[in-house]
Design goal:
Layout (H helix, E strand, L loop, with lengths): L1 H12 L2 E2 H10 L9 H13 L3 E3 L12 E4 L1 H12 L10 H12 L4 H26 L7 H32 L10
Antiparallel strand pairs: 1-3, 2-3
Helix pairs in contact: 1-4, 2-3, 6-7
Length: about 180
């Protein structure tokens, strides 16, 4: 249910076309809620049919012109209702953690290399988030909207910091094990 709310949020921040939304998802919202181009367009159609958004009238009608959408009052109310509602955390599902558990019974061959690769990916993401923080949230910038957006970014920074530190530990543990180690039955 969260994709429509992510789209409503993005459109309230700035009326946009489907293509512009896709680009914005790639640059910001997609860091914590990803969606494909097709999913976004499909959801825009649903939101429009439900009366939550509308396509703005074109300044000059032209064939094939992109639609720019804005949120209607009903969409704002739906987003406010959803924001105020309580939601339980989602259970953790991570293939890497499952693979570590499986390595305990089949052996660790190839695991150290992949742990190092994961560590590098998380380190790159962490640096990207830190660069966004330096660029977009300098000390002293702090209106309510900026502070909430910064909290979302801080969640990403803290999660990537956790993963890089945990992966350093995991690599050290696995590096000290014989590759074929694992319970054989």
């Amino acid at each position: 249910m969260s994709l429509p709310h992510a789209i409503l949020t993005a459109l309230l921040e700035k009326p946009s076309s489907g293509l512009e939304l896709t680009r914005r998802f790639d640059r910001s919202i997609g860091y914590f809620w990803s969606a494909t181009h097709q999913q976004i367009y499909r959801e825009l159609g649903k939101l429009e049919r439900e009366g939550l958004i509308r396509a703005l009238p074109a300044e000059q009608p032209a064939r094939g012109q992109k639609k720019v959408y804005e949120v209607l009052e009903a969409g704002r109310e739906e987003l406010a209702r959803w924001t105020a509602a309580s939601q339980d955390p989602k259970p953790q599902r991570d293939a890497l953690l499952l693979r570590l558990r499986a390595a305990a019974v089949v052996g660790t061959e190839g695991l150290e290399t992949d742990l190092r690769r994961h560590r590098e990916l998380h380190a790159r993401q962490l640096e990207m988030y830190r660069e966004i923080e330096r660029r977009d949230f300098p000390p002293g910038k702090g209106g309510a909207e900026d502070r909430l957006r910064h909290l979302v970014l801080r969640a990403g920074i803290d999660l990537e910091t956790f993963w890089t530190q945990w992966l350093d530990h995991a690599v050290a543990e696995v590096a000290g094990m014989p590759e074929g180690q694992g319970r054989q039955e």
